[in-house]
């Protein structure tokens, strides 16, 4: 609704936003497709996600608890409570998707146990990012409505939104590292068959999941560029 500085009312911010939307939609499609496919393929060892998590926790002496939660792809590790939550299907089904996802969440538990710097930074950014994401757009809109006199407000909004971008920028390597750890632990602990097709399938699930974080980062950067273009349009 802003940014009429383009030709014929066209906002150049769309140039940034549309590709990001397409990338995000592609990432969401890939992760759903990979999960749906490999959630129906049993792993050769017939072990569940819960069994994988229990083995990794035991082998590494991690004092965390495992619980099943409702929903699909609701798996997560909470460093504050020390609880590893696995969606009901991942927890109980012996699929390739289950063991890959469970190992990935254990990767986060390992990061926490080792004091992985980027994970600590992301955890510290969570409350700040929640506040920044809630306040950034209202402040940006107020700044735009005030015209040239709203530069101060607009700059505050931009700064807040940059915190959101930073959060996604930090999140991506954290997730990639957790997936890397997952594949290593699955193979080193004998939790996956040595058959290359099964290893490739597990890696496909993890790579597809990583794309969603790439999409989130690209979307946040595109929105930041769009915000900056809105100010430029508002000044014309």
Tell me the layout of helices and strands.
Elements: H1 13-38, H2 49-60, E1 65-69, E2 76-78, E3 83-87, H3 88-92, H4 96-114, H5 117-145, H6 151-188, H7 196-235
Parallel strand pairs: 1-3
Antiparallel strand pairs: 2-3
Helix pairs in contact: 1-7, 2-4, 4-6, 4-7, 5-6, 6-7
Write up what this structure looks like.
The chain is mainly alpha-helical. The protein has one domain (7-44, 96-235). The chain contains 7 helices and 3 strands; from the N terminus they run ααβββααααα. The chain has helices at 13-38, 49-60, 88-92, 96-114, 117-145, 151-188, 196-235; strands at 65-69, 76-78, 83-87. Strands 1-3-2 form a 3-stranded mixed sheet. Strand 2 and strand 3 form a beta hairpin. The radius of gyration is 21 Å and the shape is elongated. The model is unreliable at 1-10 (pLDDT under 50).
Strand order of the largest sheet: 1-3-2
Strand count, sense and barrel status of the largest sheet are: 3 strands, mixed
Low-pLDDT windows of residues:
1-10
Order of helices and strands: HHEEEHHHHH
- Integer average pLDDT: 91
Fraction of helical residues: over 70%
Secondary structure class reads mainly alpha
Can you tell me the overall shape?
elongated
The number of helical segments is: 7
Structurally, how many domains make up the residues? 1
Count of β-strands = 3
What value does the Rg take, in angstroms? 21 Å
Kindly report how far apart the N and C termini lie.
15 Å
Please report which band the strand proportion falls in: under 5%, 5-15%, 15-25%, 25-35%, 35-45% or over 45%. 5-15%
